[in-house]
Every structure is written in structure tokens, then in C-alpha cells.
Amino acid sequence: MNIPLPPHIGDDVYSMVIDEVIKPILDRYSPEFLVLQFGVDAHTGDELGILDLTTESYLKVLRVVHEIAHKYAGGKLVLTGGGGYDVYNTVKTWFLATVFLTDPSKLSQYSGYFDKEPTRTPGRYYEEALYVIDAIKQRFGL
What we know:
Layout: H1 11-29, E1 34-37, H2 55-72, E2 77-80, H3 87-102, H4 123-140
Parallel strand pairs: 1-2
Helix pairs in contact: 1-2, 1-4, 2-3
């Protein structure tokens, strides 16, 4: 699913999108396999991206999709890259994703790779994002 979010969305709004839109829609459709486009160009440190997400958001969406993959699809989940033009942020985010998928108990050993502060969405964009979230929820009866 592709959700048309306004620019400068931070972890706060992205968390709502995951909880209120992505997870309920995936639960409704009970997928047989999942493909997660895990490009890191939405990272706050990426000069080409227009969203302001941190490793917190990337790991949250991965956690939810991974959980859904095991709930409905026998664990069938494919991650693909496709963006991420700041090498450090791309490598650390993919590294944390790999640790999460292979041995999540070890994530705390790599706390230095987590972004220090979650990002917040500026006022105007926050209101626009809430409008988009509400429209999607109405469209899908969530």
C-alpha cells in the first residue's frame, strides 16, 4: 500500500499511520506473503527525502510487518531496498533491520546506531497528515 503523506512527517505521525492504517489493513487482508520496500530515503538525515523518519519508525514498521508475516503468511517476508542516499543512515538502518530479523534480543547491543531523538511533525503538515489518515480510514472502513 502506498500512503500519500505530506512532507516533513516525523515519527509521531508515522507511528499513527502504522497503528491506525497499515496494521488494520494488513490484518483485514490476511496476506499470503509480504514485500516491504525498505528504502531509507525517508530518513531525516537523507537530503533527497522529504520525510523526517528515524530508525525508530523503520524498526516499528518492520516489527509490525514481520508480525503480520508470521501471523498470516508463515513468515514469508521480502525486504527490498530502493532509496537511501546518505550512506551512513542507510547502512545503520539496514544493519538494525538485519539484527532485528535475525536476533532481536541483540538490538540493545547496538544502541549507538539508533537515532537519538524521535522526530515530530510540524503543525501544518501534522494537520494535513491527520486529514489523509482520516480519509484512508473512512475509505477502508477502519
